[in-house]
Design a protein that fits this description.
The chain is α/β, with parallel strands linked by helices. It is built from five helices and nine strands.
């Protein structure tokens, strides 16, 4: 099995992004699966272009993308990506689309076909807080979640795709009062556990992950 794991570069005035910092610390093999790591730009379209090129090159069985969600306190496994770019801030190339479709003729949304509940449980069993997220936002993270799912649905139907959001690192919140953070070591461990769950679970487990709001 080949698993392509992507992580964004820094954005929004931050000097570091825990997404790729944790991805690059992953081992090259997890449970005999080959782990292929890729840094992607926090830029509309260019991020997807780089992933598409890598998919064509290595033909992965799974594409797992990782992004920073400053303000979240736990590891969040995304359930759904929506066909909407609505950027609160510009991306790293200054693009700021408002209410634009990611794929003009694409469906309104794609659900991740990864075992998201099993991933959450396996991370929690490793004593790391984790939960299902029902919104990946409308910035480049959602752009990639939706866009990679569309690539899979239209060209690589056997490929599984999904997205994980991770908190700030401690050094990112020194001057951000009351902002949660998580160590790089813990985030990296959580990603490894998530990948183990993907490998071990072709189908998801029946476990609540819903929220009231």
């Amino acid at each position: 099995m080949k698993i392509l794991v992507t992580g964004f570069d820094s954005f929004g005035g931050e000097k570091i992004n825990p997404a790729f910092e944790s991805v690059k610390n992953l081992p090259n093999k997890i449970l005999n699966a080959e782990i292929i790591k890729l840094e992607i730009p926090t830029v509309i379209n260019k991020s997807l272009d780089k992933i598409r090129e890598k998919i064509e090159e290595v033909k992965p069985d799974v594409v797992l993308s990782v992004g920073q969600a400053g303000g979240r306190a736990d590891i969040t496994i995304e359930r759904i990506g929506i066909n909407c770019d609505d950027f609160r801030i510009p991306d790293n190339n200054g693009n700021q689309p408002i209410d634009e479709k990611i794929v003009e003729d694409g469906p309104d949304a794609y659900f991740s076909n990864l075992p998201i509940k099993a991933m959450v449980k396996h991370i929690q069993d490793g004593n790391i807080p984790a939960s299902v997220s029902n919104s990946a936002g409308t910035f480049v993270c959602n752009h990639v979640l939706y866009g990679v799912a569309h690539i899979g649905a239209t060209k690589y139907q056997n490929m599984r795709t999904g997205f994980i959001h991770v908190p700030f690192l401690p050094n990112q919140v020194v001057n951000k009062k009351s902002m949660p953070s998580m160590s790089l070591e813990t985030i990296t461990k959580a990603l490894k556990l998530a990948i183990e769950a993907i490998i071990l679970n072709e189908n998801d487990i029946n476990l609540t992950g819903g929220k009231i709001h």
